[in-house]
Amino acid sequence: MKLALLWTDIMVWFLVISLLVWSRVIARSPQVKKQWHTIFKSSIAMASAIILLFYLLFTLLDSIHLRFATLPTETKSEQVQYGEIVSLLDLLFTHNIESTERTYSAPFATHEYASSIVVDENGVTKQENLPLKHVSDGNNIVSESIFAIFIGLIIGGSLIFVHMVWRKKRGFKSELPWRTAYLTLLFLVVTFTWFYMLSYHYHVLGTDKVGGDVLYQSLKSIRTGVLIGILTTLIMLPVAIILGVSAGLFGGWVDDVIQYLYTTLSSIPGVLLIAAGVLSMQVMMDNNPGWFETTLERSDLRLLFLIMILGITSWTGLCRLLRAETLKISQIEFVTAAKAFGVGKLTIIRRHIIPNLMHIILISVVLDFSGLVLAEAVLSYVGVGVDPTMHSWGNMINQARLEMAREPMVWWSLFSAFIFMFILVLAANLLSDRIQTVLDPRNKS
Amino acid sequence: MFAYIVRRILYAIPILIGVNLITFILFFMVNSPDDMARAQLGAKQVTPELIQSWKEDKGYDKPLFINSEAGGVSTVTNTLFVQESLKLFSFNFGFSDANRDIGSDIKERMVPSLAIALPTFMIALITNISLALLLVLFRGSALDTSMMIIAVMIMSVSGLFYIIAGQVLFSKIWHWVPISGYESGWSGIKFIILPVMIGVFAGIGSGVRWYRSIFLEQINQDYVRTARAKGLSELRVLFGHVLRNGMLPILTGVVVVIPTLFMGSLIMESFFGIPGLGSYTIDAINSQDFAIVKAMVFLGSVLYIVGLILTDISYTLFDPRVKLS
């Protein structure tokens, strides 16, 4: 067994670590700490944050990739052969990956969705719905559900208990809405355990055209969606901050050049620029097959390029905002005073400018997140999204869309993709609303 | 005013050159003429001579940026970049891979695009502003709060969902309108209603929230308090003062969009089978027709810049304090 490091994995973990470091750093400032406290005083914000963390957990589970050594065959030498790259999430759902059906089946169905023509032992041809291969008839769904929910309650309850004990020990006397947080957590844990335990005997959300499990696909898509949402920002932030601040602070020809740059980029219609970028990237990847070993690495590389292209096209808006704000801040007395004292430009930027831009950066990061998650679906539909072999909500919608014409409809694939996406985007929107209300200085009144 | 517009148009030229440079780099450096020739001529045995003749045929045999063989000014001008840019600047888009004139294709497809985009834009503008005014009138009430929650929910649903759900409900189950297609003239209305309605509905969440925040910003201003103090009814205050003063920020966001309406909507048009520029672009992307994509990028940028200039001009019309110079 060895660890397989994909490019996006490295970036995700880098991001998580830097987020942790950043939260340590801001925890030192009592003022910022109080601001975050105010944000999470709203129970909606708290619940949204828990949901987002749950999605992040799946992203991280899906971002540790392993390769297992396959059994050495006789013809091969001692060199260890490695099989497919699998993530921790894949390991959790091995039973669903292996148990593919022949074609569509509805959620919790025991038989195939479409009838097929069979010849029975008497030689009579008839049409019937074949039973699913991996669903046995003898299961009692009610008792299994009750058992699963019971287990879920125990897991969720013990998590909450641990947290309560920890809180008591630390002696917090905070008025944060912990009850909402616990309820959200309990709900998520119970739902997931229920789905997970039943997934051993059923296809909880049905199967798709080639018999793949929809629940597994939806969960795998979380990583793609979250990655596009956060990594794009990670790539775009340094560019936007550096260019925006220097344009606002230095003025003159620097300002002119940077303004020219972002006006030019933003005048190209976004989708077209992305499409042009992705098309060129495809050609480039076709010309360099040596960049990747497996299809997974290929689709990962493509995801990385897509994220970069999205980053290149999306920094202009934030850059414009930051430039205007820097211009405003650099006119304020404390900056003038710092300049008069002979404080270096870099120190001024670090001590006076950046802290005062933080709220704009933060608001735009959370606002962009939901937009990017939704954009992924549209881009995949247009054909310039992630690799078609990659699990993503956009690809799920794209594949299932044509089946709406069937009679009766095959709705579960679409439905699952939309619901998973909706919950994520709704949570992000609600949280960003709250952050905006608290951090935006215009709302101080 | 006239001098200002001329200056703005002159200022647009370097931007368009920049746009050209970006598309040129994407299309010719990453995807060199040799690659294009190979893709066009097929995977079968392609000889260098064939590639060369294809390149000469299409005019791609010149060097990319610097032609060292030609002396003088033509070192720079007799290159692929300058030649291609000049063609675009004269709106000569050349021919697509299927050997159709892109310019006339665009002209033809503009009408269906506008038939969808224009009604969507107008109806959305009116509904969003009136809903926002309604919410501002009842600000802080249960209606306001619940509508804001609904708005966030509408925003959080993927646009694809509205299209698919709309098609299934209105066309497949209730058979009110045909599922897709297009016809010119008044008989085509039945094809247009559904995409327009879906377009309006999908944008209502973010639209109402945006207009509401603009109006709320106005409502805390001193002049509104004065207007109320002199005894104006709340409705008069809203329409006479808040709406009029909110016009300026609204214009910034709205006018810039108007010219880009010509580009059509990618998703809408391809779902509803409307032969507009949006579906034209999607088809081009899917068949990797670089000439069309390039033409659309250029057209989109021109329209965006026109939008920016129109925004500035509209300022002077609505706010007498703004003088362009």
Short description:
Chain A is built from 15 helices and five strands. Chain A is mainly alpha-helical.
Could you characterize the architecture of this molecule?
- The complex is a heterodimer of chains A (445) and B (325).
- Chain A has 445 residues and is mainly alpha-helical.
- Chain A has 15 helices and five strands.
- Chain A has helices at residues 7-28, 30-41, 43-61, 88-92, 94-98, 141-170, 178-198, 214-250, 252-267, 270-287, 295-330, 333-340, 345-382, 393-401, 412-439; strands at 2-4, 65-69, 82-87, 116-119, 125-128.
- In chain A, the strands form two sheets. A three-stranded antiparallel beta sheet of chain A has the order 1-2-3. A two-stranded antiparallel sheet of chain A has the order 4-5.
- The longest helix of chain A has 38 residues, at 345-382.
- The N and C termini of chain A lie far apart (59 Å).
- The model of chain A has no long low-confidence stretch (mean pLDDT 84).
- With 325 residues, chain B is an all-alpha fold.
- Chain B has two domains: 2-89, no CATH class; 107-318, MetI-like (MetI-like fold).
- Chain B contains 15 helices and no strands.
- Chain B has helices at residues 2-29, 33-41, 48-58, 74-77, 80-89, 102-137, 142-156, 159-173, 189-219, 222-229, 234-254, 257-260, 266-271, 277-286, 290-318.
- The interface between A and B is large, with 46 and 44 residues.
Topology:
The complex is a heterodimer of chains A (445) and B (325).
Chain A lengths: L1 E3 L2 H22 L1 H12 L1 H19 L3 E5 L12 E6 H5 L1 H5 L17 E4 L5 E4 L12 H30 L7 H21 L15 H37 L1 H16 L2 H18 L7 H36 L2 H8 L4 H38 L10 H9 L10 H28 L6
Antiparallel strand pairs in A: 1-2, 2-3, 4-5
Chain B lengths: L1 H28 L3 H9 L6 H11 L15 H4 L2 H10 L12 H36 L4 H15 L2 H15 L15 H31 L2 H8 L4 H21 L2 H4 L5 H6 L5 H10 L3 H29 L7
**Mean pLDDT across every amino acid position of chain A:** 84
Describe the largest sheet of chain B.
Answer: none
Give the overall shape of chain B, derived from the CA principal axes.
globular
Rg of chain A, rounded, reads 26 Å
> Beta-sheet strand percentage of chain A?
under 5%
Largest interface: A-B, 46 and 44 residues
Number of strands of chain A: 5
Strand content of chain B: under 5%
**Oligomeric state of this protein:** heterodimer
Order of helices and strands of chain B: HHHHHHHHHHHHHHH
N- and C-termini, Cα separation of chain A: 59 Å
If helices are DSSP runs of H or I spanning 4 or more residues, what is the number of helices of chain A?
Answer: 15
Number of helices of chain B: 15
Ends apart, CA distance between termini of chain B = 7 Å
Could you tell me the radius of gyration of chain B in angstroms?
25 Å
Level of helix content of chain B? over 70%
